[in-house]
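For practice. Supply one:
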Amino acid sequence: MVGYLVFLTISAATFALFGLGLNLQWGFTGLINFGHVAFMTLGAYTTVLLSAKGVPLIVAAPIGVGVAALLGLGIGFATLRLREDYLGIVTIGVAELIRLVVNNQDLPYRDTWTPGAFGLQSYPIPFGNFIPNLFTQWLMIGILTVLIGLAYWRVWRWIMIQDDAVKSKKSSRLVIGFVVAVLTWILYSCGVIALLDYANNQKAGLMVLSLVVLAFVFWRLEVLVRSPWGRVLKAIREDEEVPKALGKNVFWYKLQALMLGGGIAGLAGAFYAWQLSAIYPDNFQPQITFDTWIMVILGGSGNNLGTILGTVIFFAYDTLTREYLPKIVPLDEARLGAFRIMVIGLILMVLMIWRPQGILGNKEELTLGK
């Protein structure tokens, strides 16, 4: 059970990171990206192939991020001067193109060329052969405690916002905050148990690393989107003619957002590969992109904290329905999977009617109510 929750925590942190990249592109800049998984694919494969050749992970992962950002540069130069819908079409096409190329080409893995369809296995992962002593275990627990404390503080600040536009929603904020606090405490408790029993939970170190990286990226993105640069992105999202009239190079700002969001997705790809310990082209289906869109919309586009909340809710829903729904609904496995998708679609429909801006989204800022 503890090992599964560690796996679930790494998954949630990885997809929260992936979602933050998409939220930067769509939520803050208004760029339609239906092929976000392409950046994850390049980040994952670049990191794995380089590390298998002996490149240290601390070097291989940033190179993977750079390759994913370069993909954003290429896509941006080709499409950003066109209408927004062309960007959506091109990105989903590029994502499938990259997946099919990887699937049908031989990859330079270790000292041989491996057919892409066979996948890549047994590559180095962070803390793969690491055996911590007692001091290191407690150091990791201390880092995890600090991260959880920061998360509680951030959620408390959100609950206590003193704004006339949201005072009437304080009760709903308390409910959401309570649910998040309970889920976070469960994961924290399991994380501490996993770190104390590291010998039977080899990926506990990767869990701490993924949470540290997620916290760092979240912090830096929060600084960026509140800066003049971030305000220009929001202006482009609302009406790009306004920043153009003010002398801003809209094309360059869009390109920066596409590259930075792609680089973040490439970093998420590295964690995705490390978590799975074996990657295949079919691990990067378009469904990953659309699941991430659900997370961003659910939490509230244009809100980094909302993206993380949407990811937590999505994985909680996925886990609970996977474990308990078969005991309630008498359906076979194939129909049960379709039923789970139907239910989350229904939830999204209700959410779009009740809160079209998402759980934490700002309706006034996104001009959805005008």
In short: DSSP finds 13 helices and four strands in the chain. The CA atoms of residues 53 and 111 lie 8 Å apart.
